[in-house]
Design a protein that fits this description.
- The complex is a heterodimer of chains A (437) and B (230).
- Helices cover 45% and strands 13% of the residues of chain A.
- In chain A, a hairpin with a 2-residue loop joins strand 11 and strand 12.
- Chain A is elongated and about 110 Å long.
- In chain A, helix 4 packs antiparallel against helix 5 and helix 4 packs antiparallel against helix 16.
- Chain A has 17 helices and 13 strands.
- With 437 residues, chain A is an alpha+beta fold.
- By secondary structure, chain B is an alpha/beta fold.
- Chain B is elongated, with a radius of gyration of 22 Å.
- The chains are: A alpha+beta (437), B alpha/beta (230).
- At the A-B interface, strand 7, helix 1, strand 10, helix 11 and strand 11 of A face strand 1, strand 4, helix 3 and helix 5 of B.
């Protein structure tokens, strides 16, 4: 039987019945006398595919690619010879839209890029815009933003760990962790009214002060959450399957990681102790006592350890922030960006004009540009904004950490097995909304 | 199986521990010392510089950009080992040249430097690629090409990244590109529904599979057409 290079033809015949009435899948051939003739069967061997490589299209509709990522893999047997990523399926042109929006109107778009870290993006964008306006925010606002950013870091790492567990076949930690995520969402809902798309900040402050009892709610959460981390670690850290499927995969050395532009836990797992909160602090992060976990091997297992430890450090930061949360106003006293109180806007002419001008014309920053990086859960996220003195930015650029981290995936997966591609891809912690923007 | 090391980042690096900056002046803040070193080393290739909101911007000659970046990366007194971002800025004022922006960071010295190259609109928009120095520039430059149409000469694989490879409507982040796209919503939907899924494989991938020759002639022609983009 002839086999071509690309296809192996298997003769499938119509099912029939043999002479005893049993169903068969081989053609029934009878000789002249009518007796059935046994046909020679195919030899029990695998087809010779020689050195042929196979092209496998993984995604964009594959649940284990964590979004609409498409990887075209060239396989030699089960080994990945080459990996060509394709992105852009979620491209919405956030940066283009931002050029047609006032600064406060851009904040809802920052929710939607890295939607697992929405309140952290809100704070990051507000920090950048405040640098551009030359505004110094109030002490209470700083501490509230620190709490918000660390909550969102925990939230993002929870999703990462839960979904990675599911990728590797462990379902229980996923349920435990997502229950904690639900608790954080309930806290956010009590504060800003939304769970996922928070839009919590404004240039110069927050949408609202925290409600009564919210601080106690966060206290209860950070008291209970380390227990969940401990339970998850009992399940995973010394689990033979987990260790066997993560150790040694996708390893990047420190020099490679820096040259490939990795950031966040990906970079720190490779042994580089770079953390924006320590090296270029913002929101007074240098006054909080927290540690930066750093891995040694740069493989998937080290990334897991680093992220779990970061969740514990976030708990520490939140505890300190809650202890020091000062009284006072949340919004800065700057009529350029902050609206007058609603009761004044509806009763006084001057306040109404003020309200109208801030909403309709928008605040105008001076001519200039700034790049303000923050340590997002995925890595270094920065907003680069260029102002020409009008109320809308000339250029609003998102420095997407997942995008740069994902660009190293061919380097990480080539030479590994196909099943390891799923693990390595999960360890990058990608959010396609941020990659495609 | 060891737990990760706990390192206080910042205590290992030289210099005092950094603090959150306050009271940053709009203009004339402290200048990055690398500017003087660049002027001494490259002279005429370095244009003006500006300090805005505490960040130093240096304008470089587009033709010498790769040399400048390579020197900043390799020189032991500079050590800008981390490329943060590559992007471009087009101003609303159409007389202002388009700027290519490199954000460089020195992890050992905790410095941040913004390099800019001005590209006049009447000439071809092209700058040297910095992929030979920083691997992270690969996708960032592809995105910049995709969105602005700036050619990064020497890039190993300069093709569209966010838009599809056969996209021919222009460069979305340019100011002359309308916010809602070139066509009406119904026309865009029609085009999307009429598109051939095979177009989403690139030539390179089909050549891996040895399948290109087996495609119908019209599809081969469509895939093997001229370069996309303009």
């Amino acid at each position: 039987m002839a086999t071509t290079k690309r296809t192996v033809e298997v003769e499938l015949s119509t099912p029939g019945l043999d002479h005893q009435g049993r169903p068969v899948r081989t053609p029934i051939v009878v000789d002249e006398s009518g007796a059935p003739v046994t046909m020679p069967t195919l030899p029990p061997m695998e087809p010779d595919i020689g050195g042929e490589h196979m092209l496998l299209n993984l995604g964009p509709q594959h649940p284990a690619t964590h979004g609409v990522l498409r990887l075209v893999l060239e396989l030699d047997g089960e080994t990945v010879v080459r990996c060509i990523p394709h992105i852009g399926y979620l491209h919405c042109g956030f940066e283009k839209i931002g050029e047609y929006r006032q600064y406060n109107q851009i904040i809802p778009w920052t929710d939607r890029e890295d939607y697992l870290n929405s309140i952290g993006n809100n704070c990051a964008f507000a920090l950048g815009a405040e640098r551009l306006f030359g505004i110094e925010i109030t002490e209470r606002c700083k501490v509230l933003r620190v709490i918000a950013m660390e909550l969102s870091r925990m939230m993002s790492h929870i999703v990462w760990l839960g979904t990675t567990c599911v990728d590797l076949g462990a379902f229980t930690p996923f349920l435990w962790l997502f229950q904690e995520r639900e608790n954080i969402y309930n806290l956010l809902e009590g504060w800003v009214g939304a769970r996922l798309t928070t839009s919590a900040t404004r240039v110069g402050g927050m949408i609202a002060d925290v409600p009564n009892g919210w601080v106690e709610g966060v206290r209860n959460f950070v008291r209970a959450f380390p227990r969940t981390i401990d339970e998850t670690e009992v399940m995973l850290t010394r689990n033979a399957i987990w260790v066997g499927r993560t150790v040694g995969l996708g390893a990047m050395t420190a020099d490679e990681a820096i040259n490939y532009g990795l950031s966040g836990p990906m970079l720190r797992a490779s042994g580089v102790d770079y953390d924006v909160r320590k090296d270029f602090p913002y929101l007074d992060y240098e006054t909080y006592d927290f540690d930066v976990p750093v891995g040694t091997h740069g493989d998937v297992y080290d990334r897991y350890l680093v992220r779990v430890e970061e969740m514990r450090q976030s708990v520490r930061i939140i505890q300190q922030a809650l202890d020091r949360l000062p009284e006072g106003p949340v919004n800065v006293d700057d009529p350029r960006v902050i609206l007058p109180p609603k009761h004044k806007a509806t009763s006084e002419m001057e306040s109404m004009i003020h309200h109208f001008k801030v909403v309709m014309e928008g605040p105008r920053p001076p001519i200039g540009e700034c790049y303000v990086p923050v340590e997002s859960p995925k890595g270094e996220k920065g907003y680069y904004m260029v102002s020409d003195g009008t109320s809308k930015p000339v250029r609003w650029r998102i420095r997407p950490p997942s995008f740069v981290n994902l660009s190293a995936i061919p380097k990480m997966v080539e030479g590994h097995l196909l099943s390891d591609v799923i693990v390595i891809n999960a360890s990058i912690d990608i959010v396609m909304g941020e990659i495609d923007r | 199986m060891t737990a990760p090391n706990i390192v206080r980042a910042g205590e290992l690096a030289p210099g005092a521990a950094p603090v959150t900056p306050y009271g940053i002046p709009h203009r004339d803040g402290a200048m990055n010392p690398s500017v003087d070193a660049l002027r001494e080393r490259f002279g005429g290739a370095i244009g003006r510089h500006a300090v805005v909101w505490g960040e130093t911007t240096v304008y470089v000659d587009p033709a010498r950009a790769l040399d400048v970046v390579r020197w900043l990366h390799d020189d032991p007194t500079q050590r800008y080992d981390y490329l943060v971002d590559v992007t471009a800025v087009e101003y609303r004022d159409l007389d202002t040249p388009i700027e290519v922006v490199w954000h460089l960071r020195s992890l050992p010295f905790r410095r941040f430097l913004r390099l800019k190259a001005e590209l006049p609109r009447d000439a071809e928009l092209a700058v040297p690629s910095v992929v030979p120095v920083y691997r992270s520039a690969d996708w960032l430059e592809r995105e910049c090409y995709d969105m602005f149409g700036i050619r990064f000469t020497g890039h190993p694989d300069l093709r569209r990244i966010l838009m599809w490879e056969t996209y021919r409507e222009g460069f979305p982040l340019r100011k002359d590109f309308p916010l809602r796209g070139r066509f009406s919503r119904s026309e865009q939907l029609h085009q999307a529904l009429a598109a051939h899924p095979e177009n989403r494989y690139s030539m390179e991938e089909l050549s891996i599979a040895d399948a290109f020759q087996e495609l119908p002639a019209d599809m081969r022609e469509r895939l093997g057409g001229e370069r996309t983009g303009e």
